[in-house]
Structures are given as structure tokens and as C-alpha cells.
Design goal:
This protein is α/β, with parallel strands linked by helices and 619 residues long. It folds into three domains: 123 residues, Glucose Oxidase, domain 1; 117 residues, PtsI, HPr-binding domain (Enzyme I, Chain A, domain 2, Orthogonal Bundle), CATH 1.10.274.10; 305 residues, TIM Barrel (Alpha-Beta Barrel), CATH 3.20.20.60. Helices cover 45% and strands 12% of the residues. It has an eight-stranded mixed beta sheet. The longest helix has 25 residues. Its main location: cytoplasm.
Length: 619
């Protein structure tokens, strides 16, 4: 099957192999380090696939014929849409996880090419400022990307990585439009022979739709990072991957044997016999591990001492639902609803939200779905929310400490009422819980609950069969204030969920998006652990369910400590569930309790980390 991105694709530019001579000595082994992005080890011949340079854009160019430039833009948009549709057609040959993840991103691209803020901005730059189509595209996409990056850096926490990915979406569409405006061909992987290690300077996210896992055994690139969209796409394909291996394209050559270790981040060119032997064992071990994790899917997450844990999944987009099912997660512990408002020009109404929630809840087949109402604020932007009046007023020196989360929703309650109504309508499809973000004081929770019950009364008057009891209304604990007020909040909330990413940021006064202080960000800091312990004990005293969601929830090394602190419910990325379950099924509660006791006596991160590592290795 021919795998093409557009009819204008050029075959990949490949470097010529130097001629070998009979007397030539075996090349020396070359080792490079990069970002370990997709676990696994692969061995194969390298193939360098380099992309033709994008057209140069004259920053001083102006046009006196904007209609002509608008016509060129319309043609480039139409061409881009056709290319994306052809990429979608290719998804059937990919693994199911890959189809879901890549298909979701292609849908985002398709929407961006339709009537959108992006298209209006490009249009205005052509008509108002006399820009050429290429220059207008570059300036508008870069302006939107920079705005997102500034928002993410200001908000910190998990928002920074998400902002990087969203900025990449604008830049990717911008590059595609510019290439189509200049009729510059895209690269193709159709000539890649089976068993190949794909080597490139950088892969664009849409390139992932051109990768056939039956032919490409590993990917190694010069640039990129483990949190960008390309990395997410490659994880969905399950191909061992190392990104950001600097110096790779200068030293690799077509046909050279390469070892790619996506677990350690090592790339080896021309490996020696000893390295090859180790790599072959790694290939076999990874295959056995994947089979073992697959068998865990239907087994309970139960300690050897009999206690059962609840391992749930975080969900950011509905397209990820099949990944949740495949992971063996027992429900959705955190459904982020921001996707409804991103890249949207108008607010999703009550019925549209209800339909989306109901589909997700129904798919879980009786397992609980916990829906967090929209967590907005700081300097993040959504055209739909801003048109609805949900925006920050005045200047904000520190957006992370400004109007965000529940405090912002209470200022503009119409958005909250609509979302509450939609969730209540959808609750007839199955078990659901409602979660409030960024609660810091009791009266915020009380005020939100009054709105919740008022909306429920309205729906009952309209004849909606809500039953005698409403879905539980709970809170996220993301600040030291909420953790220290755990007893009071637990008396009011019907469940609690600890959000460790933001809790760490607020406790340590560290924005991990800032290079100057990122090294100080550590969720295993004793201060953070003591707050987790405090709020867990407060919830248990009030007989309230409590869970933990955040990066450490999906870390198999850290889960024994969290179990020892009294936690029994965790929500994590779907891909982490099998590995956490594997660890959990080998633990006893008494061992976890002893680990927690030792850790809580520690006074610095290094000591905590050492204790956790020793426990994991059995030393």
C-alpha cells in the first residue's frame, strides 16, 4: 500500500553510503543520549529521511492585490484539508491505539482549517496589513502559539506542557499552509523497507500517520521532546523511540546497524557484538513484559494482604476512551472538560455537553466517571469562554494566584450552571461524580453546592428523572490551604481528590516551566508528602472517599508509599495503569505502611527518593 501525504510528496532525501573497501576496519561504536520517549528496544538498519526545506518568507513583502492572496490562501487551505483527509484514510493500517490518538489530532487540524480564529486572523493580516499569504500565515500562527506559551508558563503546573502541545498545533498548521502555498513537497515514508530504524532531524505530528509499525521498528530524531505531540503519537503506535539525540543526523548513515533503547534514551550506531547481545536480550525482555501487562487487564488491583485498590484513568479527550478500556482501568477518576471550550468560538450549550458526557459515561459500562467542571483562569484564553464573560478583569501580576478554578466560575455562575445541568442530564447514563477545581475555603464549596441543588430542582420540575440522591459533589485538593483545612472541607464535600501537580507547585512556590527553579519542583518533597498525609487522614476521619491524581499516581515506584499513607484510589494516564497494577499485586499493606513510616521521618527529597528506590529494588 502506498503511503502518501499528498500528491506532491517527494521521496525522502537519503544520504549515500560510503563505499566499503576490503581492508576497511569495522566502524567504531557511537553512543548518543536523548529523551527516552517510548519504552522498548529495537535493532535495525538506519534510514535517514530528511525533509525538503520550507520556502523562505520575505518579512518585508507586501501585496497590492489582497484578493489574489486570499484566493491563494483558500486554495492552500483546501489542499491542506484534502491532505488531512487522506492521512485519516491511512489510519486503518495502524494499531488501534495509534488510530485513536492520531485521528484525534488530525480532527483538531481539520477544525483549525475551518472557520476559526486562526483563519480570521490570517485574513485580517492580508486585507488590513497588506501581507502576502505566506507572511500572514506565519505571523498569525506564531502570534497564537506565543500567546499559548506565555499562558502556560504563567499558569505553571501541568498547563505548561499542554500549552506547548497546543502551540505546536498552530505551528504545524502554519507550516502545512506555507508549504502548500509554495507547492513544496512533503516527505514520504513509502520507500522505507521492513525492519528499518527511521532517523530524522525532527518528525512533525502528522508524520506519525505515515509510519507503518510493521515496517519501522524504531524512531530516533535529532530534535523534539518527550512531552510534545509527536511523542504522544509515537507512544500510541508503541514503537521504541528516542528523541532529541543531538548529533544524530550528522553521524548516522543509511544502512548502518542501530540500536534504539527507548527505555534508557540510548542510541547506538554500529554497535559491537557485546552491545548487540545486550540489545537482543532487551528486545526479548520487552516483548515478554508487554505480554505480561496485557494479561493483567482483567485482574483486580489487589494487594497480597487482600486490600483492593481502585486504579482509574485520567481522560482529556473523548477519543482516548478506547485506551482507558484497554488499560483495565476501573473508571475515570478525572475527566477534564476543558476540551469542550478549546478552539471553540461559541459556548457548548447544555444539550451538547450532556450528549458528550452521556457518551463517555455510557462507554464506561457501570464504572464511575468523575467529571471536573471547567478549570479555567489565569492567563489562559478561550474565545468561547471570553465571549461568555468568563475572563480575568484587570492586570494580574501572578496568574497562578489570581481568578481561576472555582473562584472564577462563582464570579460567572451561568457557565457553572450550564455545566452542572449537562452533567445531571447525563447522569442517567451511569454512575458519575462531579468535582470542583481549586477550592480553598469552605464557603466556596457551599456556594457551589447551592447552585448545584438549584439546578437539580429546575431539572426535576422539567421532569428529568434524577432520583432521590444526586451524583456526589466533591473537590480537588490542590493548595496547602485546602490540605490543611481537610477536616472542614471533608465535612462539606462528598469526596476528595488530591491534585499533586498543582499542590507541589503551590507548596514549594516553584513553577516547573521556569528553567531557573524547575529543579526545585519535586512531588516527593517532605512538605508535599506531609500535606498528602494530612488531607488523607482528614478524609478518613470523616469517612469520605479520597483519591490521588497527578503524575505520582502513575509512578509504580511511588504508589507503595501512597498506599502506606492510607490511599486506596488513584487516577493516572491510561498507559500507566497496567504497570501500577503489576506492582500493586506484589505488595502487602504492612510493607507499604512500614515504608511510609520511614519516609515520613525523612527531611529531604534525596533521602525520600533513596528509601523509595531501596524498597522498589528490595534492598
Amino acid at each position: 500500500m502506498k503511503t502518501t501525504d499528498s500528491p506532491d510528496q517527494a521521496p525522502p532525501r537519503r544520504r549515500r553510503r560510503p563505499r566499503a573497501t576490503a581492508a576497511a576496519a569495522a566502524p567504531a561504536e557511537i553512543r548518543l543520549a536523548g529523551d527516552a520517549t517510548v519504552r522498548g528496544v529495537a535493532i535495525g538498519p538506519a534510514m535517514l529521511v530528511l525533509e525538503s526545506p520550507a520556502p523562505d518568507i520575505d518579512a518585508t513583502a507586501r501585496t497590492d492585490d489582497p484578493d489574489h492572496e486570499l484566493a491563494r490562501l483558500a486554495e492552500a487551505i483546501e489542499r491542506s484539508v484534502r491532505q488531512i483527509e487522506r492521512l485519516r484514510d491511512r489510519l486503518a493500517i495502524l494499531p488501534e491505539d495509534g488510530q485513536i490518538e492520531i485521528g484525534s489530532l488530525l480532527e483538531v487540524y481539520r477544525r483549525m482549517l475551518g472557520p476559526s480564529r486562526l483563519q480570521r486572523g490570517i485574513h485580517d493580516r492580508i486585507v488590513r496589513d497588506g501581507r502576502t499569504a505566506e507572511l500572514a500565515v506565519r505571523e498569525e500562527t506564531e502570534s497564537l502559539a506565543q500567546a499559548l506559551l506565555s499562558d502556560g508558563a504563567a499558569s505553571g503546573g501541568e498547563d505548561a506542557a499542554a500549552a506547548q502541545r497546543r502551540a505546536g498545533e498552530f505551528r504545524e498548521i502554519g507550516q502545512r499552509l506555507v508549504r502548500n502555498l509554495g507547492r513544496t513537497p512533503f516527505r514520504s515514508f513509502s520507500a522505507v523497507p521492513p525492519g528499518t530504524v527511521l532517523v530524522a532531524e525532527q518528525l512533525r505530528p502528522a508524520d506519525a500517520a505515515l509510519i507503518d509499525p510493521s515496517r519501522i521498528v524504531a524512531v530516533a530524531t535529532e530534535e523534539g521532546g518527550s512531552t510534545d505531540h509527536t511523542a504522544i503519537m509515537l507512544r500510541a503506535l508503541g514503537i521504541p523511540t528516542v528523541l532529541a539525540a543531538h548529533g544524530l543526523t550528522a553521524r548516522a548513515r543509511d544502512g548502518a546497524t542501530m540500536v534504539v533503547d527507548g527505555t534508557t534514551g540510548q542510541v547506538v550506531i554500529d554497535p559491537g557484538e557485546e552491545t548487540l547481545a545486550i540489545a537482543r536480550r532487551g528486545v526479548a525482555e520487552h516483548a515478554r513484559e508487554r505480554q505480561a501487562l496485557g494479561r493483567l487487564r482483567r485482574l483486580p488491583a489487589r494487594l497480597t494482604s487482600g486490600e483492593k485498590l481502585q486504579l482509574q484513568a485520567n481522560l482529556e479527550l473523548p477519543a482516548e476512551l478506547p485506551l482507558v478500556a484497554q488499560s483495565g482501568a476501573s473508571g475515570i477518576g478525572l475527566l477534564r472538560t476543558e476540551f469542550l471550550f478549546m478552539n471553540a468560538e461559541t459556548m457548548p450549550d447544555e444539550d451538547r455537553q450532556a450528549a458528550i458526557y452521556a457518551e463517555i459515561i455510557g462507554t464506561m459500562a457501570g464504572d464511575t466517571t468523575t467529571i471536573r467542571v471547567v478549570d479555567w483562569g489565569g492567563e489562559k484564553h478561550s474565545e468561547a469562554l471570553e465571549r461568555a464573560g468568563l475572563h480575568q478583569e484587570g492586570d494580574t501580576i501572578n496568574p497562578a494566584l489570581g481568578m481561576r478554578g472555582l473562584r472564577l466560575l462563582l464570579r460567572y455562575p451561568a457557565v457553572l450552571e450550564t455545566q452542572f445541568a449537562a452533567i445531571l442530564k447525563a447522569s442517567v447514563a451511569g454512575p458519575v461524580r462531579v468535582m470542583l477545581p481549586m477550592v480553598t475555603v469552605v464557603h466556596e464549596l457551599r456556594e457551589a453546592r447551592e447552585i448545584y441543588h438549584r439546578v437539580a430542582r429546575r431539572l426535576r420540575r422539567k421532569g428529568l428523572p434524577l432520583g432521590d440522591s444526586l451524583p456526589p459533589l466533591g473537590i480537588m485538593v490542590e493548595t496547602p490551604a485546602a490540605a490543611l483545612m481537610g477536616d472542614a472541607l471533608a465535612q462539606e464535600a462528598e469526596f476528595l481528590a488530591i491534585g499533586t501537580n498543582d499542590l507541589t507547585m503551590y507548596t514549594l512556590a516553584v513553577d516547573r516551566a521556569s528553567a531557573d527553579v524547575a529543579s526545585l519542583y519535586h512531588p516527593l518533597h517532605p512538605a508535599v508528602l506531609r500535606l498528602i498525609q494530612a488531607v488523607t487522614e482528614a478524609a478518613l476521619r470523616q469517612y469520605r472517599p479520597i483519591s490521588l491524581c497527578g503524575e505520582i499516581a502513575g509512578d509504580p515506584r511511588v504508589v507503595p508509599l501512597l498506599v502506606g499513607l492510607g490511599l486506596r484510589s488513584f487516577s493516572m494516564t491510561a498507559s500507566a495503569v497496567p504497570r501500577v497494577k503489576k506492582v500493586v499485586r506484589a505488595l502487602s499493606f504492612e510493607d507499604c505502611r512500614r515504608l511510609a513510616h520511614r519516609v515520613m521521618e525523612a527531611s529531604d527529597v534525596a533521602e525520600v527518593t533513596s528509601l523509595i528506590d531501596d524498597f522498589a529494588t528490595g534492598s
